[in-house]
Specification:
33% of the residues lie in helices and 19% in strands. With 195 residues, it is α/β, with parallel strands linked by helices.
Length: 195
């Protein structure tokens, strides 16, 4: 709710039990019921069985699905909903090839690779790896916080940014103050791009 009222375009609901940010369908329903108009609801999954995704989609008005595992393009698009495919960026990652592979994705979210973690690493990858001509298809994640998000946007021309750990006081506990600072930094960076 703090993210929505601070001006976030979307909130993410994590349907991945091992995550400290994971929510149940019931908790997600309570959150969604209180959201203001025009805030998109994103359901995040990690290598979930089809039945799990179907159950969540039937229970919640999700605007986007976000897949953080090894899901194929065919699997991601098979739900008939707009989706974002998260990719973990390592030194040898060919981001252009991934954009081509997931051509049906609304966006590709670039996060930092770390062995055994599907995201939420709290560290940044080399932003120079982001193709400059792919900005409208890129959502940038990985180690973003109120202090560095402006530089990240300026350097990558990413269309969107995704944050979780960078606005937390502890894993799974969001800080309203950090959320506001993050969104204000994004708004300043956006205003600079328009100039």
């Amino acid at each position: 709710m703090a993210a929505a009222f601070a001006g976030a375009d979307a909130i993410g609901l994590v349907f991945y039990a091992p995550s400290p940010r994971g929510v149940t369908i019931e908790a997600a329903q309570r959150i969604v019921a209180k959201l203001p108009a025009f805030v998109s609801v994103v359901g995040l999954f990690v290598d979930a069985e089809r039945a799990v995704v179907d159950r969540v989609c039937a229970a919640l008005p999700l605007d986007l699905l976000q897949f953080h595992g090894a899901e194929s393009e065919a699997y991601c698009r098979s739900f008939g909903r707009p989706y974002i495919k998260a990719i973990q960026v390592a030194a040898a990652t060919d981001i252009t090839a991934i954009l081509d592979t997931y051509a049906s994705a609304r966006s590709v979210l670039l996060d930092t690779w770390r062995e055994g973690m599907p995201g939420g690493t709290g560290t940044s990858f080399d932003w120079n790896a982001v193709p400059q001509n792919a900005g409208s298809r890129i959502v940038l994640a990985g180690g973003l916080n109120p202090e560095n998000v402006g530089a990240a946007i300026a350097q990558t021309c990413a269309y969107g940014v995704d944050v979780s750990g960078g606005v937390e006081s502890a894993p799974g506990h969001k800080s309203a103050e950090k959320i506001r600072a993050f969104i204000q930094a994004v708004q300043r960076a956006d205003a600079e791009k328009v100039k």
